[in-house]
Design brief:
With about 180 residues, this protein is mainly α. The protein contains seven helices and two strands.
């Protein structure tokens, strides 16, 4: 029953005994996720474009992969919520990488951006069908209570931090500055 646990357990430290079965530990982590997710969903922002707690978990998994800088989680969530509300594609690289799977070699090519997979948020609207990673409590909280922002775009600027932009023009300038070094 646990063939695919991607995103279905809460990544925490769990104590166990030598006699404990691995499946018991996984079931405990899955229950911890369900508890955390239901608690967060019960305290969600009322204006979310998410239908249910499962969609919040999917969004949280994307947030988890998008930032290593904890203070930005809610802002990243706010950008994604803005894009969902405007019926824009999320266009987030971690979903491309997840869709490529084991064939990912460290580079995302233009052909990858165009290749349709259920996870390619450059080609699909809305969320992918399942989580793409294990989501922390903090990412789950950010998914249901995003920061209020007018930003629609972000680009990595190094050190795990991002530059947030309200317009495509500003975003393209940030891409040139931080990614293309022009």
């Amino acid at each position: 029953p646990w063939a695919n646990v991607e995103g279905r357990i809460l990544p925490e430290t769990y104590f166990y005994t030598k006699a404990m079965k691995d499946v018991d530990l996984i079931e405990r982590a899955a229950k911890a996720l369900d508890t955390e997710l239901q608690q967060a969903w019960s305290q969600k922002d009322e204006n979310l474009p998410l239908k249910n707690a499962q969609e919040a978990l999917i969004l949280a998994s994307i947030i988890e992969k998008e930032t290593g800088y904890a203070p930005e989680r809610a802002t990243i969530s706010g950008v994604f919520v803005n894009r969902l509300n405007r019926k824009m594609r999320l266009q987030t690289d971690p979903t491309i990488i997840y869709g490529i799977g084991s064939k990912y070699d460290g580079n995302i090519r233009k052909s990858d951006l165009r290749r349709p997979t259920p996870y390619n948020t450059y080609t699909i609207f809305g969320l992918p069908p399942t989580p793409i990673a294990f989501a922390s409590k903090e990412a789950i909280a950010a998914s249901v209570n995003p920061a209020v922002t007018s930003a629609l775009y972000f680009v990595a600027k190094g050190g795990g931090q991002h530059h947030f932009s309200e317009s495509l023009q500003e975003h393209n300038a940030a891409v040139r500055k931080y990614i293309l070094n022009k």
